[in-house]
Records
---
Amino acid sequence: MITINAMDTIKTENSLLEIHDYRKREDLLSQMREEMATVTKLQRATKYEQTGRWVGGHLSNHYHQSWSDSLSDGQFQSKMWMVDEICKLGSKFDSTESCHIEVVGSWFGWPLMEFIHFAFPNIKQVDLYDKDELTHSVMAQYKNQFPYDYPVHQFGDWFSRSDVRRRQVIINTSGEHMPHIMQRRNFFKGNPLVIIMSNDYYDGKDHTHCVEDMMKLVEQQELGTLYYTGTRNMQTYNRFMLIGRVHES
């Protein structure tokens, strides 16, 4: 005779919930990939092209080239990688929690903004930080093309902000361009989720804070809790990503 105690029942129920949550995340990822494929085919004929025409007509050739670089396959792949891994880590945080997100070094904001809701389905507000003022005019054009049902605000230099605030998520996909962001951990209440990317492309323009490998990035950022570390080969360089929390949890 086989007996099932209460603890076994709870474990079984938890396992079923985890399977259900995983399938929900997989459905979201499938939807994201389908939308991504559609956007890739149509981007230069629709929303992205309209933004690109504005950039070409109002900003210098330097900024038009920079805008084109922001839509490279590598940029899309890295943003998709981030969303994919966050979805896999759904059990590590409450995905239904209302999220106020800060994006540090946001560049032109897109394509990250196009897919961020797949990782965080209940966004309350997104704050985009970049010290280059001209990138903000491009962000404004994107916001006209991609309307959202939550506020998307734009700010200057993230490192110059001195108020203590509560955020649920901090994202920095361009760590090679700036000092490590966790040196400012004392400006955040609670224990936000943190996603940081960097690379070893030392020859890149304005790449002042590259790291030689994944372990160097981990040592540099000193997250209290580490959920994920990964490396992607991008042909001419390696991109590194870590996901965790500011403090130990």
---
Amino acid sequence: MRNAFDIAETQSSSPTGARRHRHSPLLARSLEAHKEGAIAVNTWPASDQVSDGNFAFRGLSSQVTSRVVMKALVVEDDVELGRALVRALEEWGAATTLAETVEAATRLVANVELVVLDIGLPDGSGVTVAEKAAALRPAPLIIAFSGNATAEEAFRLGQLGVRGYLTKPLSLGDFTATVAALLEGAPNLAPFLVATVGREPFQKVLAGVRRTMAEQALARTGGNRTGAARLLGVTRQAVQNIIRDLDIETDDY
């Protein structure tokens, strides 16, 4: 039984058996953006079908995401499923790498913007990869999936800010919707902030929020204060003040 989405076997209608793709206008715009160095991750209407060799991806949603993703990492030891995930992300315009082990993933996770992560890997838990990714600046967005994650693993993923979680076998529709939601929406911080009341001083929490957001914005823009200010929705002078007040080291960006 195949578990790589709803992959349907098809026969290529090309007499040469060459790869054929029926691109939607959204994909065309994504590919054009790719040429300019900014790759928009898009999804297609459900009526579209994107063929690759003897396989076809079906059931894509009509949502369109606006956040730019240039690099993605798929961490999956099931080769068929891993390649299907890679193909889907590449069709959306993301330059995607496949890793099949914790060891390989921890080497490759730096400088990616989206991680699609299986928790059950042959040499350990995907939580280790999530921990490494969460500590990076810029930190990537993470979607985790598993057929048998433990309660401890699920809890730890929540602590690390993993906002997307899917169960196996994967549905391409669910995967598409999760990617779109992750790229479009901000997380609800209220539960985390509520838990700090009475345990941490307000000023310490505020400083932590300012530092984390500033470091992420600076890392995503290569240390560019103007670009960081744009991401944060503040003035360039405000970014300068945060860097000064919190003694943020900018040489690493």
